[in-house]
Design goal:
The complex is a heterodimer of chains A (10) and B (216). The N and C termini of chain A lie far apart (22 Å). Chain A is largely without helices or strands. Chain A is elongated, with a radius of gyration of 7 Å. Chain A has no helix or strand. In chain A, 0% of the residues lie in helices and 0% in strands. The termini of chain B are far apart. In chain B, 71% of the residues lie in helices and 2% in strands. Chain B contains ten helices and two strands. By secondary structure, chain B is mostly helical. The chains are: A little secondary structure (10), B mainly alpha (216). The interface between A and B is medium-sized, with 10 and 22 residues.
Chain lengths: 10, 216
């Protein structure tokens, strides 16, 4: 698993 | 986008609507913590700085603008507008927010995703949001009895946090590459802060009665 970088939550 | 995330955002918007209605129609900010509202304004302004260079969806960008606008409007009304500004009681709403902002800023600098300036600011906003409700909860605690609209406001915010938690669980099991330690940790702390409030909210609202919430 990769730490999520893209910010798709508010 | 899943149903938990969507309903979470909707209940977040609902919380703004309830609060704006309360202070504009009721002409009073009594029982509302300006400190908490200022913290939310700082949270949104710092986290959504990326409006200028990130685009994830129209939905996201639109809500970012809505959150910044609503929290700024609320702070403006309570701080500067008559008659609301005269109903704000600085002696009651005196939580020392510098003790929240300071440690969150340090935590943002030290614990973030990849050591870039925006990631530090973004992590700071996540940590600060987790504790931003504290001045409001302390104010309610001091007053003992909570007005209906104010309790609905806090309940809508709590529901938003709870639904986001479910959204993370759902995404964790349905997406391959989904891991957000910082957000999960801060979000769990944040949701935990509402548990006591929800207990009293449930106690006073059950049976369809609309009694004000009483806090010990």
């Amino acid at each position: 698993l990769r730490e999520m970088v893209e910010k798709d939550e508010l | 986008m899943n149903i938990f995330r969507f309903l979470g955002d909707m209940s977040h918007i609902l919380s703004f609507v309830i609060l704006l209605l309360k202070i504009t129609q009721g002409k009073s900010a009594a029982g509302i913590s300006l400190r908490t509202q200022e913290l939310y304004m700082i949270v949104f302004c710092s986290r959504y700085l990326d409006l200028f260079w990130n685009f994830s969806s129209l939905y996201n960008s639109f809500l970012k603008v809505v959150f910044i606008a609503c929290s700024s409007a609320i702070v403006y009304i309570i701080r500067f507008k008559s008659p609301q500004k005269d109903t704000w009681n600085p002696e009651l709403d005196n939580f020392p927010i510098q003790y929240l902002i300071g440690p969150c800023a340090v935590a943002g600098l030290l614990i973030n995703q990849d050591w870039t300036p925006f990631e530090m600011i973004w992590a700071f906003s996540i940590y600060l949001e987790a504790v931003a409700i504290l001045p409001q909860l302390f104010l309610l605690q001091k007053q003992g009895e909570v007005e209906n609209l104010t309790s609905h406001y806090v309940a809508a915010l709590g529901a938003y946090r709870g639904l986001y938690l479910m959204n993370w669980v759902y995404r964790y099991f349905t997406e391959d590459d989904y891991l957000q330690r910082i957000v999960w940790f801060a979000g769990t702390v944040q949701t935990g802060l509402y548990i006591d409030f929800f207990y009293h909210y449930y106690q006073s609202k059950r049976g369809g009665l609309s009694r004000p919430v009483k806090l010990p």
